[in-house]
Amino acid sequence: MLELKYGDSKVDIDLSKAKSVKVLNENPMDEITDLKSEFIKGVTTNMINSKPLREVISKGDKVTIVISDLTRFWQRQDLICEQLVDYLVEEIGISYDDIVIVVAIGTHRMQTEEELCQLASKKVYDKVKVVNHDCDADDLVCVGKTKIGTEVYVNPLVVGRKVIMVTGTVHHIMAGFGGGRKSVIPGVAGRETIKQNHIRCLSETEKKTDPRVASRLLDNNPVNEDMNQAGELVDVAFGINIVVNTKSKHSKLFCGDFHDAWIKSCKYVDDCYGVPIEKEADIVIASCGGYPKDINLYQSTKSIFNAARAVKKGGTVIFLAECREGGGAPDFFSWIEPLKRGVLDEELRANFTIGGYIFYALCEAIAKSKMLMLSEIDPNFVKDLNINSYKNIDELLEKVDFEGKDVCVLPYGGSVVPLLQD
Predict the structure, then answer these.
(1) Same domain, 131 and 185
(2) Which listed site, 30, 191, 327, 421, has its alpha carbon 20 to 30 Å from 16?
């Protein structure tokens, strides 16, 4: 009997009739037991292609720390913020008044004061100025153009100051891997800059995603390469890259050169979360890992993208996502309307948004297989996406025949990436 997380509860599925069952979990990962000690090593002795932090930043410098917003709080950057600010003040002599923390929102909503406090930690929030980035602000600064013409407008607080980027590294459907330079675009960039970069997800010649754009792909990925060039236009003094396990516990810190330390973290993420499979399965069962990872459909899409990597064309995906908050942000699910009218590609190219692209990519992933979803979401809400949604697991399983089938299971579908071996 297979037990998987669903919302705040668990679901049992009988796989006794299956021909084979392969459960994909992350590879063994380290877990940091003494965060302060690990942080100190990261900024004093274990740097990657960088001088120690105290030789990069000096007393009297104006310092900007860039952190991610609430959608990435799983990386627990608040704990890193505490260590970093303490070190800057106590070991280097930086004044609290000379430090500002910018939350890299991209095009997401502004964080409330309570959320800013949560993201930076109360200890830091009470002593240091913490602000939202605004992608529509009038005072954004142009720091140049990338080779393919993206005009890079960024928050003025990352120009002319010593910048420390604190990011979390994961697989990413557009950029290959998240973290690192993504804190520049989209993190602290202008809305038009973000659009110019992200629209490169779409093929220039066909109505589909550019095949060079996908999770794990960095080389020749036009989105990643453009982001890298934008990152070079911002003079980042030091990078701190966080990798966590599926329990959101810190596994490793990769500190030092903004680009090189991030690349090392990508390798570690791929080694831990990239799991080889010899063949695609007849049936893939994917859980997001329960609440809050399955809070809405938008947050749950990572599990569908990874399930699609493991299922045969024409196979079946059983997807467990409670979605107590429905489809998620309007910028995501409102694209159902152009989908119904058959003009999704045209309208996305004309009015590109990140949420719109995730919706677009979701449609492509679903098209590979039959999608059966256990969810509280209204079945009529997702039928135009070709998702058959059920509120009862027994009713869903009546539609599935496991007899003689190869089954692949992803208990943490948003984290583990199946890698089909050649």
Answers:
(1) yes
(2) 421
Instruction: Kindly state whether residues 16 and 58 are assigned to the same domain.
Output: no
Could you tell me if residue 231 is inside a domain? yes
Residues 175, 297, single domain; the answer is: no
What are all long-range contacts of 190-194, with beta carbons under 8 Å and residues at least 24 apart?
A: 190/135, 190/136, 190/137, 190/140, 190/153, 190/154, 191/107, 191/135, 191/136, 192/151, 192/153, 193/150, 193/151, 193/152, 193/153, 193/154, 193/230, 194/106, 194/107, 194/135, 194/354
Same domain, 295 and 416: yes
Closest to 375 measured CA to CA, from 286, 285, 294: 294
In this predicted model, what pLDDT tens digit does every residue of 202-235 receive, in sequence order?
998 999 999 999 999 999 999 999 999 999 999 9
Per the structure, the complete domain to which residue 86 belongs is given by: 35-244
* 334 belongs to a structural domain: yes
What is the per-residue pLDDT across 335-389, written as a single tens digit (0 to 9) for each?
A: 999 999 999 999 999 999 888 999 999 999 999 999 999 999 999 989 999 999 9
State CA 410 to chain mean position distance.
18
Q: Is residue 17 domain-resident?
A: yes
Per-residue confidence at 120, pLDDT binned at 50, 70, 90?
very high
The answer to whether 387 and 371 have CB atoms below 8 angstroms apart is: yes
Instruction: Tell me the DSSP string of 22-76.
Output: EE--PPP----S-HHHHHHHHHHT--BSS--HHHHS-TT--EEEEEE-GGGGGG-
Can you say whether residue 233 is alpha, beta or left, with left for phi > 0 and alpha for psi between -120 and 50 degrees?
alpha
Q: What does the buried/exposed string (b/e) look like for 86-107 if buried means 16 or more CB atoms within 10 Å of the residue's CB?
A: ebbbeebebeeebbbbbbbbbb
pTM of this prediction exceeds 0.85:
yes
Cα 284 from Cα 366, distance rounded (Å): 12
The sign one gets for the Cα dihedral 40, 43, 44, 46 is: positive
Q: Is 174 helix (H, G, I), strand (E, B) or coil?
A: coil
| CA–CA distance, 353 with 203 (Å, rounded to integer) | 16
Q: What is the CA radius of gyration of the chain?
A: 22
Q: What is the mean pLDDT of the chain?
A: 93
- CATH number of the domain bearing residue 185: 3.40.50.11440
| Domain tally, the chain | 2
Same domain, 147 and 218: yes
**Are 289 and 4 spatial neighbours (Cβ–Cβ below 8 Å)?**
no
Q: Is 290 helix (H, G, I), strand (E, B) or coil?
A: coil
